[in-house]
């Protein structure tokens, strides 16, 4: 992966009322870091409205993203853990308590990011560390450790 996990920012134990607010929590980090335009955040939400909760890829995990032409400025990820899970409408994987939003410039970087996320999300120990973090520092450390273990 060419960018560090969470390079667009991390937030820990965020209280949100619904899936839209969960997407916006991650989107705000990406906009603030210069990773995307606000239009990209709206496009992530639009994707769920249009295509359903396809971004909920594992129990408790959603990976919102959109097409690069919708406002990507820099490649990367924003990671948000939620204080309480929210439903996206994906019965087999709801409620979601981990949001990993990402931006990618092209199809190749999109696939590369997905490969990294699949490796991270496939490791129960890593997921436990991420979910157990109670501060942004702990969450960032868990993500750095996961990335280090992936490249070892």
TrEMBL record:
Primary location class: cytoplasm
InterPro entries assigned to the protein according to its UniProt record, in alphabetical order: Ascorbate-PTS_EIIA_comp, PTrfase/Anion_transptr, PTS_EIIA_type-2_dom
Compartments, record wording: Cytoplasm
PTS EIIA type-2 domain segment(s): 3-146
PROSITE patterns: PTS_EIIA_TYPE_2
The keyword Kinase is assigned to this record: yes
UniProt entry keywords in alphabetical sequence: Cytoplasm, Kinase, Phosphoprotein, Phosphotransferase system, Sugar transport, Transferase, Transport
Function: The phosphoenolpyruvate-dependent sugar phosphotransferase system (sugar PTS), a major carbohydrate active transport system, catalyzes the phosphorylation of incoming sugar substrates concomitantly with their translocation across the cell membrane. The enzyme II UlaABC PTS system is involved in ascorbate transport.
Protein name (database record): Ascorbate-specific PTS system EIIA component
Species assigned in the record: Luethyella okanaganae
């Amino acid at each position: 992966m060419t960018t560090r996990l969470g390079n667009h920012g991390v937030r820990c134990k965020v209280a949100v009322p619904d899936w839209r607010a969960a997407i916006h929590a991650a989107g705000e980090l990406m906009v603030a870091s210069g990773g995307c335009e606000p239009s990209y955040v709206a496009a992530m939400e639009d994707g769920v409205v249009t295509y359903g909760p396809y971004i909920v890829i594992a129990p408790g995990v959603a990976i919102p993203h959109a097409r690069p032409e919708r406002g990507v400025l820099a490649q990367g990820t924003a990671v948000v853990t939620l204080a309480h899970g929210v439903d996206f409408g994906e019965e087999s994987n709801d409620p979601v308590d981990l949001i990993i939003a990402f931006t990618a410039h092209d199809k190749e970087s999109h696939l590369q990011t997905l490969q990294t996320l699949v490796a991270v999300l496939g490791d129960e120990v890593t997921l436990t560390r991420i979910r157990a973090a109670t501060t942004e520092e702990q969450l960032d450390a868990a993500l750095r450790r996961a990335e280090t273990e992936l490249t070892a």
